[in-house]
Design a protein that fits this description.
Blueprint: E1 2-4, E2 20-23, H1 30-39, H2 44-59, E3 81-83, H3 96-104, H4 107-114, E4 115-122, E5 125-131, H5 133-137, E6 141-144, H6 145-151, H7 153-159, H8 170-178, E7 183-187, E8 196-202, E9 209-210, E10 213-218, E11 223-231, E12 239-241, E13 244-249, E14 254-263, E15 267-269, E16 272-277, E17 282-291, E18 294-297, E19 300-303, E20 309-318, E21 323-332, E22 338-347, E23 352-361, E24 369-378, E25 384-393, E26 399-408, H9 411-419, H10 424-440, H11 449-455, E27 459-461
C-alpha cells in the first residue's frame, strides 16, 4: 500500500555546537530585560517599552482556547543568545560554522539568483546583511531592526508597536520585553521593487527562544515582495519562537508577504503578524506552516482605507505529535474593501490541524466583500482537522461567503485514476499534490532550494507487512 509521509525534516536537523559569545540566564525578570537592552545600547524610550511589556506579560494569563501550552515554561528558556560574530556584509566574513549552515540551506545561492537583498539571523542576532546598490539608489532602506533604531530613530519610533500593541496577548508582551534581531524595510513613494527581499531566521541554541521583530513601511504607490524563512534543528527540550511582524501599507501600495516555516518538533511557534492598509492598498499573505510541536499563527489585515484589499493563501501539515493551529483575521473598516481567504491543511499520524479565523465587517464597511474557503484533508483515521470560524457582521450591505470542507482521500477518485492506468500509489500521490497545488503555486519556491524542500510533501511506496 502507499504511505504518505510527513515533510522530511531531517535535512534541517543538522546542528552546530552551541558556541555562543554570550547566553543570558534562563527565565524572565526585570534584570534580564535591562541586560538585553544594555548590551544593545538602546535608547531610553525602547527600554521603557520593554519594561512596560514585562509588566503586561506578568498580568496576562495563558490563552485557554487553543492548543495546550502547559509544557512551555519560560523559566527553562534563555531569551537572548549572541553568536560569536557581529553583522557581516559578505558571506566570506561570516564564521565558517555559521556560514556552512546557511550554505546548506541554500541562502547564498538564492541571493545570487533571485534577490535584491538578504538578511540572515542566527539565534538572537543578525549575522549577515546585504542589499543591491540599485535598491539604495532608489531610497530603499533594508537593514536589521537594531541598526534601524540607531540610524533612523525617529522613523522607527513613529511606527514601532503602533500596529501590534503590547497588550495584544501574553506572548506579544513577552516579545516586546525581550525582542532581538529582525528586519526593517522602508520603500519610498512610487518605488516598485521587481526583485524580492528575504530574511532568514535560524535558531541553533537549545533551550532558547527567538524573538525577531520585522517592521515594514511601504509608502504610497510603492510595491514590495518580502520573504521570510525559518528553521531549527531538533532538541529534546522545548524551544520558543515568538516573533512579531508589523506592516504599514500606504495609499495604493502593494505588499506580498511570503513565509515558509519549518521549525523542529520541539518548537512552540507563537508568532504574531499584522498589517494596516490605507486607501487602495493591497496585501497578499502566502503562508506555509510545517514543523513545530505547537503553532498558533493567525496573520491579520486591517482594511482601514476605502478600496483596500487582502488575500490570504495558506497551507499547513500536521504530523505525529504536532498541533498546528493556524488561520487568518481580517477587519473591514473602509468602504468597498475586499478579502479572499484560502486555507488548506493536511493531517496524518494523529496530527491535529485547526483552521481558526476572525472576520469582522464594521458598520462603516459599506459594500465590503469577503470570501472564506478552507479545506482539511485527513490521511488516516487517527488524525484530526477542525474549522473554527468567528464572524462579526455589522453591515447588511455586503457580500460574505464561507465554505469549509474536511475529508479523506476519495476512494472513488483513487479508483477512477487506477482505471486510467495509474497505480494506487501514484493515484494517491496525485490526489495529495492536487489538493496542495492551489497553495504551492503561490509560494515563492523558485529562488531557494531550501524553500522547495520545506513544502514538499514526500510520497513513498512501501510494502505492508502482513
Amino acid at each position: 500500500m502507499s504511505k504518505i509521509e510527513s515533510p522530511n525534516h531531517s535535512f534541517y536537523d543538522f546542528k552546530n555546537k552551541d558556541n555562543y559569545e554570550y547566553k543570558i540566564k534562563k527565565g524572565l525578570s526585570k534584570e534580564i530585560v535591562e541586560e538585553i537592552s544594555k548590551r544593545k545600547n538602546e535608547p531610553q524610550w525602547l527600554l521603557d517599552i520593554r519594561l512596560k511589556a514585562l509588566e503586561i506579560y506578568d498580568k496576562l494569563e495563558l490563552p485557554i482556547w487553543g492548543p495546550d501550552l502547559s509544557e512551555l515554561d519560560i523559566d527553562d528558556i534563555s531569551t537572548y543568545v549572541k553568536p560569536k560574530t557581529d553583522k557581516k556584509s559578505t558571506w566570506e566574513e561570516v564564521p565558517e560554522d555559521i556560514k556552512s549552515t546557511f550554505d546548506k540551506l541554500g541562502i547564498p545561492k538564492a541571493e545570487h539568483k533571485y534577490l535584491a537583498g538578504v538578511e540572515a539571523q542566527y539565534d538572537s542576532e543578525v549575522v549577515y546583511h546585504s542589499i543591491k546598490n540599485e535598491m539604495q539608489k532608489h531610497g530603499v532602506i533594508y537593514t536589521d531592526i537594531d541598526s534601524a533604531i540607531k540610524e533612523y530613530p525617529e522613523l522607527v519610533k513613529e511606527y514601532f508597536s503602533k500596529c501590534v500593541p503590547l497588550t495584544e496577548h501574553k506572548f506579544i508582551a513577552l516579545h516586546y520585553a525581550v525582542f532581538s534581531g529582525g528586519s526593517f524595510v522602508y520603500v519610498p513613494k512610487g518605488v516598485k521593487l521587481e526583485l524580492r527581499l528575504q530574511s532568514y531566521y535560524r535558531l541553533n541554541s537549545p533551550e532558547s527562544g527567538q524573538f525577531e521583530h520585522t517592521l515594514i513601511i511601504v509608502e504610497e504607490g510603492a510595491s514590495l515582495h518580502f520573504i521570510e524563512g525559518c528553521s531549527a534543528p531538533k532538541y529534546s527540550k522545548v524551544n520558543l519562537h515568538a516573533g512579531c511582524v508589523e506592516l504599514f501599507v500606504k495609499d495604493d501600495a502593494y505588499l506580498r508577504y511570503s513565509t515558509i516555516e519549518n521549525w523542529s518538533k520541539n518548537m512552540f511557534n507563537l508568532n504574531t503578524k499584522k498589517a494596516i492598509l490605507e486607501k487602495g492598498a493591497k496585501v497578499d499573505w502566502i503562508s506555509g506552516s510545517f514543523g513545530s510541536r505547537v503553532s498558533m499563527l493567525y496573520p491579520m489585515s486591517v482594511l482601514k482605507g476605502d478600496n483596500s484589499s487582502t488575500e490570504y493563501t495558506g497551507i499547513s501539515f500536521a504530523g505525529q505529535g504536532q498541533n498546528i493551529d493556524t488561520g487568518f483575521k481580517v477587519v473591514h473598516i473602509g468602504k468597498n474593501t475586499s478579502s479572499n481567504i484560502v486555507s488548506k491543511s493536511i493531517s496524518k499520524d494523529g496530527g491535529v490541524a485547526t483552521y481558526r479565523s476572525l472576520v469582522a465587517v464594521l458598520e462603516t464597511a459599506e459594500n465590503a466583500k469577503c470570501s472564506v474557503n478552507c479545506d482539511g484533508l485527513m490521511l488516516d483515521n487517527i488524525s484530526k482537522s477542525d474549522t473554527i470560524p468567528v464572524n462579526f457582521i455589522e453591515n447588511s450591505n455586503i457580500v460574505f461567503s464561507h465554505e469549509a470542507k474536511v475529508g479523506k482521500l476519495s476512494e472513488e477518485a483513487i479508483y477512477y485514476l487506477t482505471t486510467r492506468g495509474l497505480s494506487e500509489d501514484d493515484a494517491k500521490a496525485l490526489l495529495v499534490r492536487g489538493f496542495a497545488s492551489p497553495i504551492s503555486k503561490q509560494l515563492p519556491l523558485e529562488y531557494a532550494v531550501e524553500m522547495n524542500r520545506l513544502i514538499n510533501i514526500e510520497l513513498e511506496e512501501v510494502k505492508k507487512n502482513d
